[in-house]
Specification:
Number of helices: 17
CATH class of the largest domain: Alpha Beta
Strand content: 5-15%
Distance between the termini: 32 Å
CATH topology of the largest domain: Rossmann fold
Number of domains: 2
Largest sheet: 8 strands, mixed
Strand order of the largest sheet: 1-4-3-2-5-6-7-8
Shape: globular
Structural class: alpha/beta
């Protein structure tokens, strides 16, 4: 068990845990946004007087340990996941090795951490192998005596529609079993709670809606990339309006809509589209349908693709350089990118889908447009591009929202209530 190396906590920064403080083992096998979420939650739980520990991949632990804040809290990071993540993991999945060995090894790692840590609650943040997860959770409960809480950041796999999930088959069987195996579920929007009830028959009493916490620390700790330097590093001219698309490039995120919108704006506005994130499942940007679309529409020179995983310390570069953050999603449950935009005080244009409307105040913290509507997206972007004062107004409202509605302190307090409830058997199955 190794403590997360970081700046020591300030005296009085953290509550001293009581002898009967809830011990929770947070489990996150991924890198990127969910890993940052898990660390923020662990930090806030420790501040609330709980005793958290985090099981993480070595890659995620190393990246976050190098970042100064908010990882100053005293909680343990257990580097227990034996499988490397990223492309090598996808290769293992393609060879079906993961189905034979990965879940067992990873579950043994979590069980070993749980035996050492003795948690009251095991709180999973992601599903590594959905065909096996329900069985593994049931086994963990039996082996450790801990209650199982799962935060369903996405109720459905990204490329699966509700209609496809309703169809009888192994996909529906596995996900239904998974949700019924948890003692309690957390989602980030009322729409997602309704989806759990409608698609999987989960009673409302076993689901809590908690907001996605803020990522203001990314902006607050940004000393490396002031705006002028960030824009210069990307070759942006002073009169160019920079629109940022950030995160994994996947079909459901609607990058095609955004490229068509930029094409519609090019005669009226000097605009650059920053496409920052790894393509999935394509091997490279040039292999994607989006690169071909940009060429066909004659806007490939207006795009700046940075299609690789962006280290946490470099995230600020792209948000600091941007004027508008676009979330053109076809479908969405919630978005950590929205919280990043709020933290950096950037104007946001996003589609009215899934839980996004619950995470923003239309016209105040974001401008909403219908999904799959390039004309509406272009009009919204064009209006903001022409009005710097309006952009600043929306950005400041978003930052206030992040500091209040999405503060981690009340989120941790409510999460701790859930833990205590399921640990005593009053809030679970």
């Amino acid at each position: 068990m190794s403590a997360a190396p970081s700046v020591p906590a300030t005296p009085g920064d953290l509550a001293t845990p009581a002898a009967d403080a809830c011990r929770t083992l947070l489990v996150n096998p991924t890198v990127g946004g969910i890993g940052q979420y898990a660390h923020c939650l662990a930090h806030a739980l420790r501040g609330a007087g709980a005793v958290p520990a985090l099981v993480a991949s070595a890659e995620e632990a190393d990246e976050l340990a190098a970042f100064p804040s908010p990882w100053s809290a005293r909680y343990d990071v257990l580097r227990s996941y034996p499988l490397p993540l990223g492309p090598s993991l996808r290769a293992r999945i393609r060879r079906r090795v993961l189905a034979r060995t990965g879940p067992r090894k990873n579950n043994d790692a979590v069980a070993a951490a749980a035996r050492a840590f003795r948690p009251d609650v095991i709180h999973a943040q992601w599903v590594l192998s959905w065909p096996h997860e329900a069985r593994l959770w049931n086994e963990l409960r039996r082996r450790t005596g801990a209650a199982i809480v799962y935060t369903a950041h996405d109720v459905l796999p990204h490329e699966v529609t509700p209609e496809e999930m309703r169809a009888p088959g192994p996909l529906r069987t596995a996900w239904t079993a998974l949700y019924h195996a948890a003692d309690h579920l957390i989602v980030h929007a009322e729409a997602l709670k309704a989806q759990l009830s409608d698609l999987f028959g989960i009673p409302d009493s076993r689901v809590s809606v908690l907001p996605h916490g803020s990522y203001t620390f990314l902006a607050d700790d940004n000393t490396r990339w002031p705006r002028g330097q960030a824009r210069a590093s990307l070759g942006l001219n002073g009169d160019e309006v920079a629109v940022l698309f950030f995160g994994f490039i996947r079909e459901y995120k609607g990058l095609d809509t955004l490229i068509r919108a930029v094409a519609a704006m090019r005669e009226r506005r000097a605009v650059r589209l920053l496409v920052v994130g790894k393509p999935y499942p394509w091997p490279s940007w040039e292999a994607t349908e989006y690169a071909a679309l940009a060429r066909d529409l004659g806007v490939d020179k207006q795009l700046l693709p940075v299609t690789e995983y962006v280290p946490l310390a470099d995230v600020a570069r792209y948000f600091a350089a941007s004027d508008i953050v676009a979330l053109p999603y076809h479908r969405a449950s919630q978005s950590g990118v929205l919280q990043m935009a709020y933290g950096f005080g950037r104007a946001v244009v996003c589609t009215d889908t899934g839980g996004l409307r619950e995470a923003a105040v239309p016209g105040e913290t974001a401008v909403f447009v219908p999904p799959r509507d390039p004309g509406a997206m272009a009009a919204a972007l064009d209006a903001l591009a022409a009005d710097a004062a309006r952009r600043e107004q929306i950005g400041l409202a978003g930052r206030r929202h992040a500091d209040t509605a999405y503060s981690w302190k009340p989120i941790a307090a409510r999460t701790l209530e859930i833990y205590r409830s399921v640990a005593t058997g009053s809030g679970g199955r």
